[in-house]
Amino acid sequence: MIPLGRHLLRFFLPWACAGCRVPLESFEDHGFCGRCWLAIPRIHGLVCRACGVPLKDGGASCFNCRRDPSPVIIRAAAKYSGVIPRAVYRFKYAGRKTLASPFASLLRFAWANYPELRDFQALVPVPLHPTNERVRGFNQAQLLADEFGLVIRKPVFSILIRTRKTPSQVDLNRRERQDNMRSAFALHPWAVSKSETLKGLSLLLIDDICTTTSTLSECARVLRRAGVQSVKALVLARDL
Predict the structure, then answer these.
(1) Domain spanning 27-238: which CATH class is it, in words?
(2) Domain spans of the chain?
(3) pTM exceeds 0.85, yes or no
(4) Which end of the chain is more exposed for a tag (fewer CB within 10 A), N or C?
């Protein structure tokens, strides 16, 4: 039961749509009004079999993966466009952590559409550097994994750490981003001590945004070196 105080708070200060900012009528944070929810640019149809980029002209692989295939299969719920950038900004930088719930619903819809992602034992969130996590107060990938795990009834293994605070990747090309991420992740010390339990597992990486696949590829490399049999990834949005 929702406490009376929260009812009163949301009556006088209702949640606003994370897209268009119109007031929402619900006491819980549903994230989006009906119009913005329907306007989310979900990824449908043909995608690159490796990195998950939508393929307008058909085929099996995108241009980048034909030259340098992504080492990890990636799928995304939506394009990083329309209402998504505004919503993700409010989630990550404005502290609206309750958006993890509607975002988890988007992940659930995407996961249901990609049978190649179904067979795994646990979710693994992509970690933030400890300094960044202290400043932000949370790791958005951890929140997404926790909410998504509740929806699909899968455990969350927070077994990766970020060992190096990498420079911003905004102005870097694909190859530079790959170099920037190299050796930026490692197994958490407690996971190293129990590495035998990881051998043979299939894991699904979770993150908020994927641009060039460099972060997810490096995380997958660390997990495979630890003996994990299969690593794939599902992200909220793909920045094309």
Answers:
(1) alpha beta
(2) 27-238
(3) yes
(4) N
